[in-house]
Write a structure and sequence with these properties.
The protein is α/β, with parallel strands linked by helices. It has helices at residues 57-63, 80-83, 86-92, 102-112, 178-193, 197-207, 226-237, 255-269, 284-291, 310-322, 341-349, 368-387, and strands spanning 4-7, 10-17, 22-23, 27-28, 33-41, 46-49, 72-74, 97-101, 119-122, 127-129, 134-139, 149-153, 158-162, 214-217, 244-249, 273-278, 296-300, 303-304, 307-308, 328-335, 355-356, 360-363. It has 2 domains: 4-237, Metallo-beta-lactamase, Chain A (4-Layer Sandwich); 245-385, 3-Layer(aba) Sandwich (Rossmann fold), CATH 3.40.50. It starts with a strand and ends with a helix. It binds MU-OXO-diiron (FEO).
């Protein structure tokens, strides 16, 4: 992709990574991603905002062939998908200063071996004049690392947000089609931002006071309707979940599956939305997306040797890491002769301080009384959701 004009003196640079299918060696990317850098030309100085993932070095360096001078290289975030080519840019532009938050300085030195003397730190709210273009730096910690900040280009009312409000979405379109970008943005929020929900609430309050025409993130297309993504984030970070049950499960000989099917039917009859995922083939990114709204998680697992099935263990650990807004949890499953599955699940979710609803564990293939216990579990979940007024 070639450089593209956003506004007078403001250009998108970077790379669309159509083929990337995994991020952080764990996160599925069904729609690819992009690494956005932005070039801002003032009458006196030139700034480059972020770089690209090292796999896309060639793209960025080709775009920079027509850029004779960069005075400031702004690093919103030290993670390598944006910072990875900072050393190449500093090598090409010997006079350029690397501008970052105070916390980011050591991180950039450690991760990229940037010479400390090339770094200029800025405080929260500090401005930098390029000549007719004023950059205001705003600290937005824990989105999703501690050093993260955003840049507000005052004259053009563009907010450059790094990962904040981004989407893993490869597209040739410069601007977001809201209907298309909603799910990739939610998937990105779920996997990266959700554990830092409280910090993000504060950061939204901080940035939404600005007069913003566009939000230009470091992943995915630019938003020309900032309210669209700000309101989506407000919904995802609010303290109230929705009337949703997330049901990741695994079954070896169908006994657990029979319990799962009964629970899904019983919840649906009671007006509770449920998302069932067979962990043998599920996209864990999709599980994360549904976790954003879930009030209850029920893990379905058979006993594998004497404990929880490894795939159920993985899903439960992921839920405990991503946190979400879940209030209630339970376990359903079967065993042959003995099981420590319950204790293992309880140990994994203990840090979440959830209310555990009576599990249903049966020996062998479920009998009628086991299925009735599943109906009772569904009723309890529905009651709990009703009591909280979940929609
Ligand atoms: Fe897109 Fe946290 O890096």
């Amino acid at each position: 992709m070639n450089a593209r004009k956003v506004k007078e003196g403001v250009f998108w640079l970077g790379a669309v990574d159509w083929d990337r299918r995994l991020f952080d060696s764990i996160i599925p990317l069904p729609d690819g991603t992009s690494y956005n850098a932005y070039l801002i030309k003032g009458s006196e100085k030139v700034a480059l905002l972020d770089t690209v993932d090292p796999t896309m070095k060639r793209e960025l360096m080709r775009q920079l062939e027509d850029v004779p001078r960069i005075d400031y290289l702004i690093a919103h975030h030290a993670e390598q998908d944006h910072s990875g080519e900072i050393p190449s840019v500093l090598e090409k532009y010997k006079e350029a200063k690397l501008v970052c938050s105070t916390i980011a300085k050591d991180m950039l030195v450690d991760h990229l071996h940037v010479p400390p003397e090339r770094i200029m730190t800025v405080k929260d709210g500090e401005t930098l004049q390029l000549g007719g273009k004023t950059l205001r730096f705003i600290y937005t910690p824990w989105v999703h690392w501690p050093e993260t900040m955003v840049t507000y280009l005052q004259e053009d009312r563009i907010l450059f947000t790094g990962d904040f409000f981004g989407s893993h979405y490869a597209t040739s379109e410069q601007y977001a089609d809201e209907a298309q970008v909603y799910e990739p943005a939610k998937r990105y929020f779920a996997e990266i931002m959700m554990p830092f929900r409280k910090a993000i609430q504060k950061n939204i309050e901080k940035v939404e006071k600005l007069d913003i025409d566009m939000i230009a993130p470091s992943h995915g297309p630019i938003y020309r309707d900032p309210k669209f993504i700000i309101n989506a984030y407000k919904d995802w970070v609010s303290d109230t979940p929705k009337n949703v049950v997330l049901l990741p499960y695994i079954s070896m000989h169908d006994s657990t599956r029979m319990l799962v099917e009964r629970l899904v039917a019983a919840l649906t009859d009671r007006g509770v939305r449920v998302y069932q995922f067979d962990l043998a083939r599920a996209d864990i990114g999709k599980i994360a997306v549904e976790l954003v709204d879930a009030a209850t998680v029920v893990v379905g697992t058979p006993t594998f040797h004497s404990g929880i099935h490894p795939l159920a263990l993985y899903a439960t650990y992921l839920v405990s890491l991503l946190r979400g807004r879940i209030k209630f949890a339970s376990v359903i499953g079967s065993y042959g002769w003995k099981s420590k599955a319950l204790e293992q699940v309880a140990g994994l979710i203990e840090p979440l301080k959830l209310e555990v609803i009576e599990p249903v564990i049966c020996r062998g293939m479920p009998r009628e009384n086991d299925l009735k216990a599943i109906d009772a579990l569904a009723e309890k979940i529905a009651e709990k959701h009703r009591a909280l007024g979940l929609k």
